[in-house]
Amino acid sequence: MPFIQTRDGHSLFVKHWGDRVSPGPTVVLIHGWPLCSDSFDHLALHLSLAGYRVLAYDRRGFGRSDQPFDGYTYDTLSDDLADVMGSSGVDDAVLIGFSMGGGEVVRYASRHGGKHMVAAGLIGSVTPFLLKTDDHPEGVDGSVFESMKDGIRADRAAFFAGFFKNFYGVTDDNAAVSQPCLQWTRQMAMRAGLKATLDCVDAFGRTDFRDDLKAIGVPTLILHGTEDLAVPIEISGDQTAKQIADADVIRYDGGPHGLLVTHQDEVAGDVLNFLSTLN
To answer: Which residues have a catalytic role annotated?
Structure first.
């Protein structure tokens, strides 16, 4: 079945890779904003060919999943993750979140007690907290997120044309990815609902995960690019690593936010190496 039902009655699209009875943990992949599960295809293929069962799903409001008017908070999104796992019979999960998806991983750990979670992976994750506040002065000013939403409301297609160049580290001197790749990424983004796209800017930009990270008591892999312009490593990956006792950190020198494409083989190799340590 490509769709599962959430506890509040919405359909989520789920891709199943590999053998359902394969030994070892099931890898569950949670995509970034404003993409869908297709952004994990390269990694999912590598993992499934290595013998792992892999699930990747479209977050509510994105891809082929339902687009309800509300529910775009991390409490509801982590409940959706729990529903995907329950409906798919997953009882030994390695939860890997990219960018916004890292928030679901750590909120699931705290809100659902890490049930059936044996390890975690955070790739370019928005944790522990992006927003600048009095007790987090190094964060990103809230006006940045409001400007993003203004640009999306005014001309979403034009906004994403510029956004994804920064996402992949494309400059006049560095192609980084092909034009067809940029077009494919924009197509994923434009498939999402406008309300979901806007609400999730607030979710990943303003949610404080510092307390949630205390619930992570499993081996964790952290991958982050040192030149990530979307989620700067200094306030995200580096700080997350300090708060998780059993964390294996790999910094991609010069790497942008879109590591799943620009460093796809390195990411697949590092994730496979991490998984091999869990056996």
So the answer is: 99, 228, 257
